[in-house]
């Protein structure tokens, strides 16, 4: 039986980056701008898909969910990062630290499943185009989205429940800019080997399975594209999935670098930089990658902007 959580730690100190205060002010300005651009980019994507009828397609519907996950993720992490940069050290309550870790795991897990669903969508669109609209109908889209969020929530709950029930009695310092799982477990004075084993046995097979699904989907996609006789047809087919493939590569590449590769002897600064890439960089890059590589979105955005400005002028 798990005993109730007996935590001696009330506050946790986040050390962030060991740099001069002047450099911290520069980094604070940069990350504040990045945060604002991330919110604007992802919310703009959601607004476009919601209000423009031409974008009411499964691919863009899934993209809005990815944008929502990115907004939640960056809002969970970046304010803490900005506070640490401004004050050189961040002070967060133990409960808030656990909550931050839960939301982080929830968003990352949900995004992982959403990317898998999007790879299946691209597989159907390219490998089975004649039946695409029949199979990938509105009801299936909703079911896949709900399942993705529920699986992300369930995975996060399973990981965080035993973690929150450990005893935490110090030290109360985390050499990071947010509450991540490895440094949080280091604060526990309980035996964490059982919790770490449980998390690994649950998370690894799930993540491995979804990664295999993505690999298999793109194996079929590439084989079909290579069979297209015309270079124009191959380029057009590949352009429909190149954005998603780029996002998947960045997402899994950074996660692999932080959580799978051995950390022994690895610089903490390198680990923090990789963490910055998937908590700050990826949420900013996702809408940029999808918009720059998609002429339909660019054209729709131009039309939407013109209509919006005309509406404002009429109201004035």
How would you describe the overall organization of this protein?
With 316 residues, the protein is mainly alpha-helical. Helices cover 76% and strands 3% of the residues. It has ten helices and three strands, in the order E-H-H-E-H-H-H-E-H-H-H-H-H. Helix 1 runs antiparallel to helix 2 and helix 2 runs antiparallel to helix 9. The chain starts with 10 loop residues before the first strand and ends with a helix. The relative contact order is 0.14. The model is unreliable at 1-7 (pLDDT under 50).
SSE inventory with pairings:
Layout: E1 11-14, H1 21-51, H2 58-87, E2 90-93, H3 94-127, H4 132-135, H5 138-164, E3 173-174, H6 181-185, H7 193-226, H8 231-260, H9 268-292, H10 295-315
Parallel strand pairs: 1-3
Antiparallel strand pairs: 1-2
């Amino acid at each position: 039986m798990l005993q109730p959580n007996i935590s001696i730690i009330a506050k946790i100190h986040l050390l962030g980056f060991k740099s001069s205060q002047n450099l911290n002010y520069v980094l604070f300005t940069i990350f504040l701008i990045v945060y604002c651009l991330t919110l604007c980019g992802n919310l703009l994507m959601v607004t476009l898909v919601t209000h423009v009828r031409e974008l009411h397609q499964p691919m863009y519907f899934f993209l809005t969910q990815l944008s929502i996950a990115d907004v939640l993720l960056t809002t969970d992490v970046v304010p803490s990062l900005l506070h640490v940069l401004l004050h050189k050290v961040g002070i967060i309550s133990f409960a808030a630290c656990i909550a931050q870790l839960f939301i982080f795991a929830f968003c990352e897990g949900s995004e992982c499943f959403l990317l898998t669903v999007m790879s299946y969508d691209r597989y159907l669109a390219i490998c089975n185009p004649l039946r695409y609209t029949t199979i990938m109908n509105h009801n299936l889209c909703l079911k896949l989205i709900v399942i993705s969020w529920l699986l992300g929530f369930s995975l996060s709950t399973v990981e965080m429940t035993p973690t929150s029930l450990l005893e935490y009695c110090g030290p109360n310092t985390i050499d990071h800019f947010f509450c991540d799982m490895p440094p949080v477990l280091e604060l526990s004075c309980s035996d964490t080997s059982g919790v770490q084993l449980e998390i690994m046995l649950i998370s690894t097979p799930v993540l491995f399975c979804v990664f295999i699904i993505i690999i298999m989907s793109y194996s079929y996609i590439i084989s079909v594209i290579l069979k297209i006789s015309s270079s124009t047809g191959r380029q057009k087919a590949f352009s429909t999935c190149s954005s998603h493939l780029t996002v998947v590569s960045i997402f899994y590449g950074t996660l692999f670098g932080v959580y799978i590769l051995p950390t022994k002897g690895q610089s903490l600064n390198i680990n923090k930089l990789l963490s910055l890439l998937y908590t700050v960089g990826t949420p900013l890059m996702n809408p940029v990658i999808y918009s720059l590589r998609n002429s339909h979105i660019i054209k729709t955005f131009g039309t939407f902007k013109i209509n919006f400005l005309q509406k404002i002028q009429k109201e004035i």
